[in-house]
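Q: What would this chain look like folded?
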Amino acid sequence: MAALETIRNIGPAFAGSLRSVGINTAEELHAIGANAAYIRLLQQGSKPHFISYYVLHMALQGRPWNDCKGPEKDALRAQFDALKVQHCDTDRAALERILDQIGTGIAR
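A: My prediction, written as structure tokens:
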């Protein structure tokens, strides 16, 4: 079994995040796919970030992270937005927004 870091664009930090949701090898990541892996990250509380989403897609295709452009990037953006709506903790996001407004938000 190959380490996650053997996949182009997957560094130690991203690999650690993937391991935290039960994806431990490159083979497991390829088998589950980018969308399912990203859904797991969102469900465990990771903040949605479009760049990490498309980097994951590019990684599984063996492409440079910045190779995603034009219509392909637009299509991935639409998929990302749909995943965000379906799988993000909107109650927590609303709470964070209110806490930020009164100046006691979570330190970032």
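The first helix runs from residue 12 to 20.
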